[in-house]
Design goal:
There is one protein chain. By secondary structure, the chain is mainly alpha-helical. It has one domain: Winged helix-like DNA-binding domain superfamily/Winged helix DNA-binding domain (Arc Repressor Mutant, subunit A, Orthogonal Bundle), CATH 1.10.10. It is built from four helices and two strands, in the order H-E-E-H-H-H. Strands 1-2 form a two-stranded antiparallel sheet. Helix 2 crosses helix 4. The chain is globular, with a radius of gyration of 12 Å. It starts with a helix and ends with a helix. 16% of the residues are buried. It comes from Rhodopseudomonas palustris (strain HaA2). This is DUF433 domain-containing protein. InterPro entries: DUF433, Homeodomain-like_sf, WH-like_DNA-bd_sf.
Length: 73
Amino acid sequence: MAGAMNYAIIHIMRHERIQIDPEVMGGKPVVRGTRIPVELILRKLGAGLSTAQIVAEHPRLTADDIRAAQADA
């Protein structure tokens, strides 16, 4: 468990909008304060959705959150 926490701290430092918490979505990277996985955002972008479309589908997200998910990949 300590290793996971250290990884989470390092990962959080990479980008403050992305968090990894073993208690949230099984430790997958998510947008901080949500249960929206980075993986979901990347899949939607890969499917051709625009940032505006993703934000419309997930109103808790911002364009900055989408950019953070891309940077985290």
